[in-house]
Write a structure and sequence with these properties.
The complex is a heterodimer of chains A (115) and B (114).
Chain A lengths: L4 E3 L2 E4 L5 E6 L6 E7 L5 E8 L2 E4 L8 E4 L6 E5 L8 E8 L9 E2 L3 E5 L1
Chain B lengths: L2 E5 L2 E5 L4 E8 L3 E9 L5 E6 L6 E3 L2 E6 L4 E6 L8 E9 L8 E3 L3 E6 L1
The chains are: A mainly beta (115), B mainly beta (114).
Chain lengths: 115, 114
């Protein structure tokens, strides 16, 4: 069981470019959560998705950010026209359909640097 | 708005010391309280607490939840340099569209000197 896989591990983008972050949940998990960690801060919830559905996006910035979890393939967090303030570590976690009666397993994260 | 606050923000101790990390929460539809250890990569799960007053233990680490005080503590005895990390506390929601959502505190940075 490979665990939650995120790629790339590190991503460097120039201001104005697009960033695409991928998350493959653990086998059998159909719920995905994205969190952002800014330097010197705790993790902040962004979005909760199930296959083909966004359940809770209350933590997503209103503009430039979007997320999807298609029927096939990984979940994608997309940031359009990146700015320096988007530089952060982005973590993904997954849980099974019945929810998690245990601690969520996080992926190793993608560290986005906007130059 | 849901809120989790941890204290202290940072702590420096020597090997062998015992430390207590604090976490308080204000979360609607509270379900459980989780502790994570974060070194250089992903947060790794330590404990999940759902019931008040029942201590969970793993080696030198232990944790307990107080639902009346809306708080939890994480104890580490006989600290080692390998315990140096950021310790994150998170409250989990129950039900509705927030099901499973974690609200994290800002973390406690623990540094253990030899």
């Amino acid at each position: 069981n490979a665990g939650v896989m995120q790629n790339p591990r590190h991503l460097v983008r120039r201001r104005g470019q697009e960033a695409r972050l991928r998350c493959s949940p653990m086998k059998g998990h159909s719920h995905v959560y994205w969190y952002r960690q800014l330097p010197e801060e705790g993790l902040k919830f962004m979005v909760y998705l199930q296959k083909e559905n966004i359940i809770d996006e209350s933590g997503m910035p209103k503009e430039r950010f979007s997320a999807e979890f298609p029927k096939e393939g990984p979940s994608i967090l997309r940031i359009q026209q990146v700015v320096r303030g988007d530089s952060a570590a982005y973590f993904c976690a997954s849980s099974p359909p019945t929810g998690a009666n245990y601690g969520y397993t996080f992926g190793s994260g993608t560290r986005l640097t906007v130059v | 708005e849901d809120k989790v606050v941890q204290s202290p923000l940072s702590l420096v101790v020597h090997e062998g010391d015992t430390v207590t990390l604090n976490c308080s929460y204000e979360v609607t539809n509270f379900r459980s309280l989780l502790w994570y250890k974060q070194e250089k990569k992903a947060p790794t799960f330590l404990f999940m607490l759902t019931s008040s007053g029942i201590e969970k233990k793993s080696g030198r680490l232990s944790s307990i939840l107080d639902k009346k005080e809306l708080s939890s503590i994480l104890n580490i005895t006989a600290t080692q340099t390998g315990d140096s990390a950021i310790y994150l506390c998170a409250a989990r929601n129950a039900g509705g569209t927030s099901y499973g959502k974690l609200t994290f505190g800002q973390g406690t940075i623990l540094t253990v000197h030899p």
